[in-house]
Amino acid sequence: MQTATRGRRGGGRPKLGKPNPIDVHVGARVRLRRTLLGMSQEKLGEAIGLTFQQVQKYERGANRIGASRLFDLSRVLDVPVSFFFDDIADPESGEASSAPSAMPEAGEPDPMAKRETLELVRAYYRITDPGVRKRIFELTKAVASAADAA
Questions:
Q1: How many domains is the chain partitioned into structurally?
Q2: Is the same domain home to 78 and 34?
């Protein structure tokens, strides 16, 4: 006799069509950090013993990331585990956990998800001289402040 649970192991969570918003957020943070490091899905998968297809599913939130896997990801991506939960909206208030000034306005695309931002960060970290890097950082802040004042 076959049952409706055939093919599922251990009774895990049922597939309801849409991924959990927290899984989607954590996956997006994995993708953000991986992309900032210039790492491919294939390289990340190799580092934690997965295929790039499994990494894709994690990044989309289609597969939930377990605690031990999240710990492995934090080591490979060189971030604390809490990084994956930064900027997550509180389900009760709907407000993000980070400072409001760091978040885009409603309806605006997240600047951290733009290719331009990722390329800028990668180029910045390719500057090997810490003094030069600091001066570039200060210059960028000064230009942004001048633009805000104008």
A1: 2
A2: yes
What gap in Å lies between CA 117 and CA 131, rounded to an integer? 22
Domain presence at residue 7 = no
Digit-coded pLDDT (tens) for 25-81: 999 999 989 988 889 999 999 999 999 999 999 999 999 999 999 999 999 999 999
Asked whether residue 116 falls in the same domain as residue 93, the answer is no
DSSP the chain: ---TTTT-STT-PPP-SSPPHHHHHHHHHHHHHHHHTT--HHHHHHHHT--HHHHHHHHHTSSPPPHHHHHHHHHHTTS-GGGGGTTPBPTTT--BSS-GGGSPPTTSPPGGGSHHHHHHHHHHHH---HHHHHHHHHHHHHHHHHHHH-
- Nearest alpha carbon to residue 83 among 97, 93, 94: 97
Domain assignment of residue 141, given as a range: 108-150
Closest CA to 83 of 28, 20, 21: 28
Q: Decide: 25 and 90 in contact? Cβ < 8 Å.
A: no
pTM of the model: 0.61
